[in-house]
Input
Amino acid sequence: MGLEAVFFLGALVLLTALIYGVLSYRYRNRALDRVAEQVTRLRYRKNET
Output
């Protein structure tokens, strides 16, 4: 019965990671995404000159 517990624990960890990933993608802060994109564009412009 020890091996079944290991598989169950592994499946539980994978399910928890999947739920966390979906929720963090769905409820991400879009304002921070815009700021990060602005900074990236500014850095590319500085590197071109």
Notes: The CA atoms of residues 5 and 11 lie 10 Å apart. The longest helix spans residues 2-26. The radius of gyration is 20 Å. The chain has a mean pLDDT of 90.
